[in-house]
Fold this sequence. Notes:
The structure is a homodimer. The first copy, chain A, is α/β, with parallel strands linked by helices. Chain A contains 11 helices and 13 strands. The first copy, chain A, has a single domain, classed as Ribokinase (UDP-N-acetylmuramoyl-L-alanine:D-glutamate ligase, 3-Layer(aba) Sandwich), CATH 3.40.1190.20. In chain A, the strands form 2 sheets. Chain A has a 9-stranded mixed β-sheet, with helices on both faces. A 4-stranded mixed β-sheet of chain A has the order 3-2-6-7. In chain A, helix 1 crosses helix 8, helix 8 crosses helix 9 and helix 9 packs across helix 11. The longest helix of chain A has 18 residues. The model of chain A has no long low-confidence stretch (mean pLDDT 95).
Amino acid sequence: MSLITVGTMAFDAIETPFGKVDKIVGGSATYVAYAASNFVQPIQQISIIGNDFPKEELDALTSRGVKLEGVEMVPDKKSFFWSGKYHLDMNTRDTLVTDLNVLADFNPIVPDSYQGAEFLMLGNLMPKLQLSVINQLKTKPKLIVMDTMNFWMDVALDDLKEVLKRVDVLLVNDSEARQLSGEFSLVKAARNIMAMGPKFLIIKKGEHGALLFHENHVFVAPALPLEEVFDPTGAGDTFAGGFIGHLAKTKDISFENMKTAIIVGSALASFCVEKFGPERMKEITKADIDSRIAAFVQLVNFEIDLV
Amino acid sequence: MSLITVGTMAFDAIETPFGKVDKIVGGSATYVAYAASNFVQPIQQISIIGNDFPKEELDALTSRGVKLEGVEMVPDKKSFFWSGKYHLDMNTRDTLVTDLNVLADFNPIVPDSYQGAEFLMLGNLMPKLQLSVINQLKTKPKLIVMDTMNFWMDVALDDLKEVLKRVDVLLVNDSEARQLSGEFSLVKAARNIMAMGPKFLIIKKGEHGALLFHENHVFVAPALPLEEVFDPTGAGDTFAGGFIGHLAKTKDISFENMKTAIIVGSALASFCVEKFGPERMKEITKADIDSRIAAFVQLVNFEIDLV
């Protein structure tokens, strides 16, 4: 049940209608690790950080069973930094600053001790680097899940399409699915994208939930209606971490179990947005998660008696 | 299980990215009647038409058990006419023409034969007229369901709020819920709106499904992911008709049964959008409806085993 996670570890500055924070840890691999480590340990992390990444944050990850052998530490540079401001609807945001710093020269190396992993989570990152990790694995994992974003469709579409040929599950949001496929209908978009490689496609729709496509099957998962979304940063990565964490724990990669994994991912993401950055993810317990999952069951549960 | 339906019977001219039609029957009460008559008959219709409303359309309704005693026919005027053009996303549209015609002088009269009805569906109409119908009823119905739209919030908010005090269930879409409540969060909006009168609130989100709120409970219903939405006209009215039709058939107005009614309404609406106007609603059979409802069950069905 070993799980390799690849992505960024970073600092974020975030402004939402509810407040702002100048510097908080973030990055796709950070959120994935916090979410997935609730279900499976060790998490074999691959990322890169600068000399400014706090030891206590690394210790916090280590204490959750996150292995850092694959995390390169660059002594004379700073960590990746992203700054963004959310609009009132919380579904759209402006990127204010992107300082690549250490990320500019990132060349991920899979440590020998990570070889043989059964699950691979490719968090949002340059597609070339995602592909490099796949190519370094001596045994093909049981399941490769890939997250990406519109930015890579704009600047590295060919690379992205190469990765798509090699992954089992792709995660994108609805506008990204439309951009990647050129289709407005999400049903048509899904068919088109699955023809590019992934056997499973998850389309994330934020407050409107998520769709899972596989062959001719589709599953719709709700999002929990929340009083407030405090900070959506990392919600997609957290969803991904919960999704693959559940699959790695259960070692079951069937469509049926992926439905459950999506509910688990949605539950985790619903915590993530309650506080700035990964703060809430550091607090929650197994009991909190189980209770939130039970709320999801209530949310969609109905009886139909066809007479 | 008698059901009174109130609303417009009209002609529409519709343009979508898939085609256009210059004159097709429409109106909120038309769609409600087509949907609800699949579940309960008679439907006691209250509306107004001009001298141009085709006899064959009236006959088609009559043959489905729709009583027209409450439909006023004005010999020297034309029926209400609406013309609209949908944007590519099908969620937004521009109204091109609104010719009130007979609707300008509409003064709905509840026929004596309709008195004692257990269910009342107030389709989208001037709030004053919706209220007038409520006031004419000698016995309070078991359930009053009201549909409305942003237009009445703009031009007749005080009247609308008077009706809200008298109804059990309100149907609006997400932007209307936000407009009516002044709250962006739909959870807060729901609480605010239920304080205005309705014990139940349904927020329709089009392709993203629907939410049902009651006290502290919430239920999320999906929409069926469709290859194409050909023409969304009447989908909301059809949803309303399926919803109240199921409740009137089962005579059960519990929160649990309303969940089922929402799935039924969603299934009906998913047919409505497949062709222009109410055309598809005229074709479907009970077997079609049952099969579509079964698809909804598949769509959201998942197993959770908390271990």
